[in-house]
Amino acid sequence: MPGTNTGKEGAVSAAVESLRKAMAESDKASLEKLAEEQLLYSHSSGRVENKAEFIATLVGPKSGFSAIALSDQTVNVVEDIALVRHKFTGTRKGDGNKMNLAVLTVWRERGGQWRLLARQAAKAE
């Protein structure tokens, strides 16, 4: 599905990039700002986290990622909701395992800021 052209896609892409950086850097303050209170963060394993669990998973000393790359991204905006699809490649800090995922995220715009509302990942080949 090709992306939309509403003029909001650039701001959504910037929010996605901010989230990528915050996850890679275990930046708790930025993660707090980028995630909605009602966040549902679903892992490829089936585990689902709320906002507090999502952040706690990323900010521990052996938690999170040492590197994250996103590719093949599309952004589709419908009013104040954005659907973002991309490929996620990451290296875990604790065990060095590499992850290749297909990810769908849902973003909501409030007060001119895009925040992550939901995320679903599946293992990619």
Description:
The chain is an alpha+beta fold. The protein has a single domain, classed as Nuclear Transport Factor 2, Chain: A, CATH 3.10.450.50. It has helices at residues 9-24, 28-34, 51-59; strands at residues 35-42, 48-49, 65-78, 81-92, 98-110, 113-123. It has a 6-stranded mixed beta sheet with strand order 2-1-6-5-4-3. Helix 1 packs antiparallel against helix 2. The model has no long low-confidence stretch (mean pLDDT 93).
Keywords:
alpha+beta, Nuclear Transport Factor 2, Chain: A, about 120 residues, globular, about 25% helix, about 50% strand, 6 strands
Compact description:
This protein is 26% helix and 48% strand.
